[in-house]
C-alpha cells in the first residue's frame, strides 16, 4: 500500500516557483518647480499610486511589473516632484494554474518586488534634492481581493444590463 502511494506521488507533477531576475523597466523623476521649491516650507501632500501587471513571456515564465507613482505637492497645489518607477521581475511558475497562478502573480510577486521599487523611489527623491521618502508597507493580498471583487461586481452589472 505504501509503495502504491509513493508511486502515485511520483507521478504527480510538483509545482515550482522561482524568481529569475529583478530589474527596473522604467523610471522617471520630475521637479517642475525647482529651484524655487527648495526655498519653501517642506510640508508636502503625498499621493502614492500603485499598479501591477503580469504577462506571460515564455512557456511557464511570467513578467510581473509593479508601477509606483509618487507625487509631492505643496500648499499652493504646486508639484514639488513626481517619481515613477516600474520595477519588474521574471518568474517561473511550473505546475501552477488557474486561481493559484493569478494569486501568485498578483500577490506574491508584487510582494517580492516592493522592497526594490521602494528603494528606487527613495533614491530618485534623494538625488532630486528632497528628503528621504520611505513608502509604507503595502498589503498586496487586500489589493488583489479588492480588484477581484470589483471585477466580479462589474461583470455582474454588465450581465444584468444585457
From TrEMBL:
SUPFAM superfamilies: SecB-like
UniProt subcellular location: Cytoplasm
Keyword field: Chaperone, Cytoplasm, Protein transport, Translocation, Transport
Keyword match Endoplasmic reticulum: no
Gene3D superfamilies found in the cross-reference section: SecB-like
InterPro entries: SecB, SecB-like_sf
Coiled coil location: none
Principal cellular location given in the protein's record: cytoplasm
Subunit structure: Homotetramer, a dimer of dimers. One homotetramer interacts with 1 SecA dimer.
Record function comment: One of the proteins required for the normal export of preproteins out of the cell cytoplasm. It is a molecular chaperone that binds to a subset of precursor proteins, maintaining them in a translocation-competent state. It also specifically binds to its receptor SecA.
Listed NCBIfam families: PRK05751.1-4, secB
Family per record: Belongs to the SecB family.
Protein name: Protein-export protein SecB
Species name: Spongiibacter thalassae
Encoding gene, per UniProt annotation: secB
Amino acid at each position: 500500500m505504501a509503495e502504491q502511494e509513493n508511486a502515485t506521488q511520483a507521478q504527480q507533477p510538483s509545482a515550482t516557483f522561482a524568481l529569475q531576475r529583478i530589474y527596473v523597466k522604467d523610471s522617471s523623476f520630475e521637479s517642475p518647480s525647482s529651484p524655487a521649491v527648495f526655498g519653501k516650507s517642506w510640508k508636502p501632500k503625498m499621493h502614492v499610486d500603485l499598479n501591477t501587471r503580469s504577462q506571460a513571456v515564455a512557456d511557464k515564465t511570467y513578467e510581473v511589473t509593479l508601477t509606483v507613482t509618487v507625487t509631492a505637492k505643496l500648499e499652493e497645489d504646486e508639484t514639488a516632484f513626481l517619481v515613477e518607477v516600474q520595477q519588474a521581475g521574471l518568474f517561473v511558475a511550473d505546475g501552477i494554474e488557474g486561481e493559484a497562478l493569478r494569486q501568485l502573480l498578483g500577490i506574491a510577486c508584487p510582494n517580492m518586488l516592493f522592497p526594490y521599487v521602494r528603494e528606487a523611489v527613495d533614491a530618485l527623491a534623494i538625488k532630486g534634492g528632497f528628503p528621504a521618502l520611505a513608502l509604507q508597507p503595502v498589503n498586496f493580498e487586500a489589493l488583489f481581493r479588492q480588484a477581484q471583487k470589483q471585477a466580479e461586481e462589474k461583470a455582474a452589472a454588465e450581465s444584468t444590463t444585457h
